[in-house]
Amino acid sequence: EHLAGHLPTRLKGLDKALCGGIPFGVVTELVGPAGIGKTQFCLKLALLASLPTSYGGLDGQVIYIDVESKFSSRRMIEIGSKSFPEVFYREGMAKEMAGRILVLQPSSLPEFTDSLQQIKVLLLQNKLKLLIIDSMAALVSGEFEQTNNPRQHPLAWHISFIKSLAELSRIPIIVTNQVRSQTHGDSLFSFQHTVGANSQMQSRPDNPSRFDSHLIAALGIHWAHAVSIRLILEVRSGQRYLKIAKSPISPPLQFCFEITASGISL
Ligand code: ATP
Ligand code: MG
């Protein structure tokens, strides 16, 4: 079974670069500006995990923590019916898949804490196959002072919990984070530079991606270290790009992608 496996995204180049897809047991972060497609990506992944194994899915329960109430079951059904019509139009299958995706909508930090606690119950039953948190940065309103002890960060417990959850349960965890659009100048420090994540990327002049400093301010360095894979979604000259910005196995590749009725595709 999928012990040390991957959840294939069915985005061919990405799956190849990540040796099969989103890996189990680590945190994968989707970062990008508003409207770029982070939630669209999450909806697709939720569907993929809920698919029967005979169709390449994980045949399991998904928890989708929808912090900003942006989850759309109508859109999910659209993506499902257009991407996997052969499964979706099988008697009762759409309903069964939808029933596997549990959407939690915490509206405050204490409620988010409760959401994470609920996960433990499902984990003990060994049914949970994917956890999505859309989005994490939305949970912290004010800017966190960098000089503070990371342990005093309002999400310190959550960050540790999420990381250890991935490691202990061996499920894939997807977290989104919004950054402001990429129109700021060089005065903002680059994320790679800050945490030394990927020196190859820094030296590429055609790759000017900067990690928005407000995200660092909001989530702190503790978070940056908790993330194993970072995918940056961005738009340049009207074209959407998905970039592997941090990965233990892949070089900093990038792919063009688009969003259609059937969801995100390369
Ligand atoms: P935010 O940070 O605000 O949550 P996001 O990165 O999650 O933004 P999404 O909601 O995933 O952004 O993407 C929204 C975009 O997806 C829309 O702007 C639109 O371009 C595209 N989109 C949504 N539904 C469809 C559809 N049915 N057909 C084509 N494109 C669509
Ligand atoms: Mg979104």
UniProtKB/TrEMBL annotation:
It is found in: Nucleus. It comes from the Eukaryota. One of its GO terms (molecular function) is double-stranded DNA binding. Belongs to the RecA family. RAD51 subfamily. GO terms for biological process: double-strand break repair via homologous recombination. GO terms for cellular component: Rad51B-Rad51C-Rad51D-XRCC2 complex; replication fork. Keywords: ATP-binding, DNA damage, DNA recombination, DNA repair, DNA-binding, Nucleotide-binding, Nucleus. The gene is LOC110793268. It comes from Spinacia oleracea. This is DNA repair protein RAD51 homolog 2 isoform X1. The keyword Nucleotide-binding applies. Residues 3-179 form the RecA family profile domain. Its main location: nucleus. The chain holds residues 78 to 343 of 374 of the full protein.
